[in-house]
Amino acid sequence: MGTLIHGINGHFIGKVGDLVGSHRLGKNYIKYTPKISLKPRSEKQLAQQAKFTLAIRLMHPVLGLLRIGFREQRYPSQAYQVALKHTLKEVIKGDYPNYLIDYSKIQFSRGSLGGAEGLRLLAGQGCLFIIWNGDGFRMNAYGTDRMHLLIYEAETGTYLHGPADIQRMQGAAIMPIPEELSGKKLQVYSFCASDCRKVSDTVYAGEISIQSAAAAC
């Protein structure tokens, strides 16, 4: 049931018959409810659905992080939509049903802050060492910038987020790797975020595999 806003002459929110009213970004919208079709989907429709499903699998688990990573955009509330659009256009390659993912193109952030430079990955026993240039005195980069470190494992769809208190000036971090991810291909990413709400573009650090630990890191 729809709700009238500002009386009988105002717009409405919700469903009335075949119409759905909504309010977004200061504008009012009215659209028809979609009709259910019994016709089998075409290959083009199946291809688009499969691509969209893959993009959602990549982006939805890190929805909270995307709200940080895309907060410099004109409409920060649309961070998820911006990330999905980029993923569909730049990340997922190839033809249906054999899609490929270009992991180097995934973006969890987009902004004007300088990103981490000189990122290097070193495999430990059951942990990953991430090293970068900790110089926070160059243009548009600050030592106190927060380092967001992210690992993605495609087979299980697992994301790991780095320590919460790592700053750019520290120049290094250690991330323990769970036993179930040992030997698997891990994609590693980083972006920076400042206290004044600036963020950097995502930097892809590369792919690495970590062997099981004989003892905890």
Features:
217 residues, 4-stranded antiparallel beta sheet, alpha+beta, 3 helices, Immunoglobulin-like
What this model shows, in words?
With 217 residues, the protein is α+β, with helices and mostly antiparallel strands. The chain has three domains: 30 residues, no CATH class; 63 residues, no CATH class; 89 residues, Immunoglobulins (Immunoglobulin-like). The protein has three helices and 13 strands, in the order E-E-E-E-H-H-H-E-E-E-E-E-E-E-E-E. A four-stranded antiparallel β-sheet has the order 1-2-3-4, with no helix packed on it. It has a four-stranded antiparallel β-sheet with strand order 10-9-12-13, with no helix packed on it. The protein has a three-stranded antiparallel β-sheet with strand order 7-8-11, with no helix packed on it. A hairpin with a 4-residue loop joins strand 9 and strand 10. Helix 1 crosses helix 3.
How do the helices and strands line up, and which of them pair or pack?
Elements: E1 3-4, E2 12-16, E3 19-24, E4 27-32, H1 43-59, H2 63-69, H3 79-91, E5 92-93, E6 100-101, E7 120-123, E8 127-131, E9 146-153, E10 158-161, E11 172-176, E12 186-193, E13 203-208
Antiparallel strand pairs: 1-2, 2-3, 3-4, 5-6, 7-8, 8-11, 9-10, 9-12, 12-13
Helix pairs in contact: 1-3
Which strand order do you get reading across the main beta sheet? 1-2-3-4
Give me the count of strands.
13
> Low-confidence spans: pLDDT under 50, at least 5 residues?
none
Q: Which outline best applies?
A: globular
Number of domains: 3
Q: What's a concise summary of this model?
A:
The chain is built from 3 helices and 13 strands. It has 217 residues and is α+β, with helices and mostly antiparallel strands. The protein has 3 domains: 3-32, no CATH class; 43-105, no CATH class; 120-208, Immunoglobulin-like (Sandwich).
